[in-house]
Amino acid sequence: MHLIATLIAEPETRALDANSADDARAALDGMGGCVGAVDWLAPDTACEIPFDDIGLEEAHANLNAALDPAPIDIVVQKRGGRRKDLLIADMDATIVVGETLDELAAHAGLKDRIAEITARAMRGEIGFPGALRERVAMLKDLPVSALHDTLRDTRLMPGARALVRTMRSHGAYTVLVSGGFRFFTDEIATLVGFHANQANDLLIQNGRLTGGVAEPILDRDAKLAALKRIAREHDVPLSDSMAVGDGANDLPMIQAAGLGVAFHAKPVVEAEAPAVIRHGDLTALLYLQGYRADEFET
User: Fold this and answer.
1) What residues pair up with 9 in beta bridges, in sequence order?
2) Where are the alpha helices (DSSP H) in 234-278?
3) Closest CA to 261 of 237, 293, 285
4) Around 152, how many Cα atoms within 13 Å sit in the side-chain half-sphere?
5) How far is CA 223 from CA 24, 140, 203, 244, in A?
6) Could you report the average pLDDT of every consecutive run of 10 residues in the chain (298 residues)?
7) What is the pTM of this model?
8) Is 88 in contact with 118 (CB distance < 8 Å)?
9) Which residues are catalytic?
10) What is the pLDDT of residue 252?
11) H helices present in the chain, as ranges
């Protein structure tokens, strides 16, 4: 069987029970395909069902209909080559909770104003480079201590460490590529376990932000270029890569990767991404590769 459907629930709710799995299998069976047995990757959290002789998009649509409105993510993909040798991940609202620039802006009393611009950029309504320059300019003269305070309060997305460390333990190369700032990515990458990171640089003088950002800005095109360059440098075909993000500036790399995942993403990203995770945490990306919970490195 050359296709597989992966069903994933949010780990804390454990909303995926045997009845839901049986309903999914029955939906595939009712389409006239050849359907295998349900294989549990984690009790009440993730399972997969191999099948054949059904169109990928048709299968996905029917599974969604069969399980709606249960809070269960469904991804249908080719069964072979699922374990990836390269992971490229966005940082803000993907590897960490929230947007670090918005949280930094709180120290200047500008969080709501800057968060509105951030949201528009992540929805693809305005260009990312211009939006970044505009937001950073508003933070001119903010002391560097605000960066340290923001970093101290930044929380990792659930499953971030398990995702990166499990893939690393199985030989994958992992990179954090962010339109945010190296001040944060350097620390977050180390904390989570990434091999490397790339991001923008804030300009600082006399212990305060100048209101500028170093050029060129790492935008959507730069993220795509990073994916291709890193894959080439590590002799990894793009088909063996995984990219994950939530915003419009992540979409080109998500679409170019062997498995691109929109993670708790904006609608414009969900509409175009090959795989969508709305409910699960970042361990969902491991289940999509066929990892079992007892294989996770935590």
Assistant:
1) 72
2) 251-256, 267-272
3) 285
4) 6
5) 36, 26, 21, 11
6) 94 89 96 95 97 94 94 96 98 98 97 97 96 97 98 98 98 98 98 98 98 97 98 98 98 98 97 97 98 95
7) 0.97
8) no
9) 90, 92
10) 98
11) 18-29, 56-67, 100-106, 111-122, 128-137, 145-153, 160-169, 182-192, 220-233, 251-256, 267-272, 284-287
